[in-house]
Amino acid sequence: MAAHSVAAAHATIAASAGAPTPASSTPSERLGFRLSSLAGRGLRSPLLHARLGFRLSSLAGRGLRSPLPPRRGASSTPAASASRRRQQRVRAAAVETLEGQAATGALLEKSVNTIRFLAIDAVEKANSGHPGLPMGCAPMGHILYDEVMRYNPKNPYWFNRDRFVLSAGHGCMLQYALLHLAGYDAVREEDLKQFRQWGSRTPGHPENFETPGVEVTTGPLGQGIANAVGLALAEKHLAARFNKPDSEIVDHYTYCILGDGCQMEGIANEACSLAGHWGLGKLIAFYDDNHISIDGDTEIAFTEDVSARFDALGWHTIWVKNGNDGYDEIRAAIKEAKAVTDKPTLIKVTTTIGFGSPNKANSYSVHGSALGTKEVEATRENLGWPYEPFFVPEDVKSHWSRHVPQGAAFESDWNAKLAEYEKKYPEDAATLKSIVSGELPAGWVDALPKYTPESPADATRNLSQQCLNALAKVVPGFLGGSADLASSNMTLLKMFGDFQKDTPEERNVRFGVREHGMGAICNGIALHSPGLIPYCATFFVFTDYMRGAMRISALSEAGVIYVMTHDSIGLGEDGPTHQPIEHLVSFRAMPNILMFRPADGNETAGAYKIAVLNRKRPSVLALSRQKLPQLPGTSIEGVEKGGYIVSDNSTGNKPDLIVMGTGSELEIAAKAADELRKEGKTVRVVSFVSWELFDEQSDEYKESVLPAAVTARVSIEAGSTLGWQKYVGSQGKAIGIDKFGASAPAGKIYQEYGITAENVIATAKSL
């Protein structure tokens, strides 16, 4: 079709939509519209095809790139206008490659198409996956991994590497293709061929525990960008603590690609709001603005001006209008982003999902399923790709091969720099190396407080604060905060100030009322370096707001410590909206997470000891608002077993009755046992502070605590009874709460719900 005909068609369509006729000089700008945007404007697809004589998607790879100007309006705020003026000045300047040795011309196109077809071929072979994003994002992925990022393919865990997060994790074949080309051992050709198969290192979404080179586990939309905020926070914090005027020993960027789906999720806004507030200048996010989600064009549900929102959040924003082959635009945007050091940067990159597919590009059909044999062949023809599946042309392979020696040189240079740093600043170097390695200082456990029955009664949330402050003095990577409840969760580190934009060396992190973002940011901190141990806090019931992030903690082996106070009906008057019921059992059902409910100071200290040691398993501590006594028989060592005997007047491992409890109800169990013993019964009291740890003990140990011959068993816990049957057995009884709580003083609620020693005694006698 002649260029003037395209322009005429666009003028007609633009006029019908009430838009001005563009005076663009390139074919793609003359076209200037998205096919989907015409729906509802009197021009349905068949009619449009008849008028234009082609499908919009068929232009991919034929000199007419789509889409270009998006349907969402550009921001008109002064800040946005200034941002656009700055980017225009940068674009007017000659664009320099950031690391040199950049591919150009035919080699660049071939390299980008290699990425596309590795993704296409892997998805096709698996008959499962999401080819659209890799096809559209290949240019920005290429520039990041080939020209911009510093990394060592042979040591994916080199400390000072740049981090990359694919928040739109469904498009993971983009990252696998890039890791493969860059020379990572984790993603060889055979791994690409095993995409989404049992036991492969190329699972259906990026998983840090499966694929070295993948920093965090993404898939649930929005989690990745929030993780990226955590990674960038960690870099800024460590840089502030350890960099010197003559040595920037911590100096790396965090890059992220996120899509429309991530932008729609509330967690992304929570985390990005904090990133702007903290001024995370080394966080650069690429927004894949392809306007397609599973249900179709995002016009049906998502029409906001994303750039304007990010301007308001305190980000620097840039718009790359042609993400399909605007390589110099992408390079210039990255250069501009790096020049802005006091703000994170969002680069909106307008792309075509499924770029190059003649019949499926720019549509939801390329989002989440294989192209199909015929469309793969059509795409090969359209992009001039004559190669067999999974083939990497020799010139492309040769070009990318430099990253192995280059990465080794990056790490070697940094190691030499660290050696010089160590000579000048030995104490700081030792501390930094412990954070990098995860090695805990000798004797750190001795810092945890110890308690006796004579120690004053206190709420376990207060005892938790004593532990937190004790640990912060001896564990250099310990940091964290609360979701606007620090004075109630008791989580402030008294010897440190607040981590803020201008005081990033401090270790109290103020998350505001952003539970979900808080959890995901802490995942990023934990996965940045083995010696960073983040904790975060809120009321236990509000784990409902952050459960998605907590599940990713468990899945991705991020050892976050969740400090959850107000753990039961014991919080009293705030009522059922704030009183957890089903929460304990819900986390006990979650794999790879430790659920602790300590009864007093020694058990709280024991829970923290285990939590700090478990760097690949997150921990949840459910802590009381009300005061509890320091019980005889509890111990830090006992907590390590999960369940252990607190008191027992029987002999030969044959008590008449076993009473089990957790948290505030362990005191009730002990009181009931004392009364029953007065009546001549032999009673064993067992603390079940962590079911998971108890279940991991040997059969011999479990038999020593819960002998199979003793069937008279009672448990008491101010929460759901679900799950207790495996410990009380078929002939025992579980006392708990299987309905919502109530608003009243705590003592009254306990009495009305039967969470009392009297009920334990009556239940025991009924067995």
Automatic annotation (TrEMBL):
Keywords: Magnesium, Metal-binding, Thiamine pyrophosphate, Transferase. Residues 63-88 are annotated as: Disordered. Residues 63-82 have a biased composition (Low complexity). Substrate binds at residues 130, 367, 461, 488, 566, 574, 578, 625. One of its GO terms (cellular component) is cytosol. GO terms for biological process: pentose-phosphate shunt. Its EC number is 2.2.1.1. It is an enzyme of class 2 (transferase). Thiamine diphosphate binds at residues 170, 219-221, 261, 290, 367, 542. This is transketolase. It comes from Leersia perrieri. The lineage of its organism: Eukaryota, Viridiplantae, Streptophyta, Embryophyta, Tracheophyta.
